[in-house]
Write a structure and sequence with these properties.
This protein has 223 residues and is an alpha/beta fold. It contains three helices and eleven strands; from the N terminus they run E-H-E-E-E-E-E-H-E-E-E-E-E-H. Strands 1, 2, 6, 7, 8, 9, 10 and 11 form an eight-stranded mixed sheet that branches. Strand 1, helix 1 and strand 2 form a beta-alpha-beta unit. Helix 2 packs across helix 3. The chain starts with a strand and ends in a 10-residue tail after the last helix.
């Protein structure tokens, strides 16, 4: 596994070109799996399920069509983007299991900062309960999204991946309906009162990776 960390802001075009080349090389056995940690300049991406009406401010930032799953997502400074290029064929060719493992990785990483992340049926990503906020109309505890997940597979190699909000400008999410989900907010580690830096998050991602992503894939059993 290669870990690649880029300083500064990486253009979406550069990132996409790298991921497509690396995914092809992994599929052909010419390269090892790769985790790439980076930040993008402010932009929106449209997944394969994106709805035009969910792009509320189309002139605010560049909008890039993306063949990953999901709907509209924001990327920008202060958000750690984690591009995951891994051979899913070696993990049993179970896409749902792979996505669940990515969710578990995010949750384990948040736990390093004493945060409890949640997965919700019908709502993609990782969520944080906000008991400090007024409850939802149906009485449930308010929740904010802290991480988005969206992948694409080509020849059973994944690319795209995860984004975790460290300290982005949360107002930038206002130009879209994030992942097509209304009635919920967006938060970040710093917004939650945690003095976490990008380097801190990177350390936590590395610390939790092996126990989640290199463990037997979900559904595997010992012989």
């Amino acid at each position: 596994m290669e870990w690649k960390i880029s300083d500064g802001l990486t253009s979406y075009e550069e990132a996409l070109a790298f991921m497509e080349d690396r995914a092809a090389a992994i599929a052909e056995g010419r390269a090892e799996d790769c985790i790439w940690l980076l930040e993008h300049p402010p932009l929106y991406t449209a997944g394969t399920s994106a709805k035009v009406e969910d792009l509320k401010d189309p002139d605010r930032f560049p909008v890039y069509p993306s063949k990953r799953g999901g709907q509209y997502t924001y990327h920008g400074p202060g958000q750690r983007v984690v591009y995951v290029m891994m051979d899913v064929a070696k993990r049993g060719r179970d896409v749902r299991c792979f996505v669940q493992d990515l969710e578990k990785w995010v949750i384990a990483t948040l736990a390093q900062f004493n945060l409890t992340g949640h997965i919700r049926e019908g709502r993609v990503g990782v969520w944080i309960e906000r008991p400090d906020r007024p409850p939802l109309p149906d009485g449930r505890v308010a929740e904010d999204k802290i991480a988005a997940i969206g992948i694409r597979l080509r020849k059973w190699v994944s690319f795209h991946g995860i984004s975790i909000n460290v300290e982005p400008d949360l107002s930038h999410f206002d130009g879209i309906v994030p992942c097509g989900i209304t009635d919920y907010g967006v938060t970040s580690l710093v917004d939650l009162g945690l003095p976490v830096t990008m380097d801190d998050l990177d350390v936590a991602l590395r610390a939790t990776f092996d126990e989640v992503m290199l463990a037997p894939a979900c559904g595997d059993t010992a012989g």
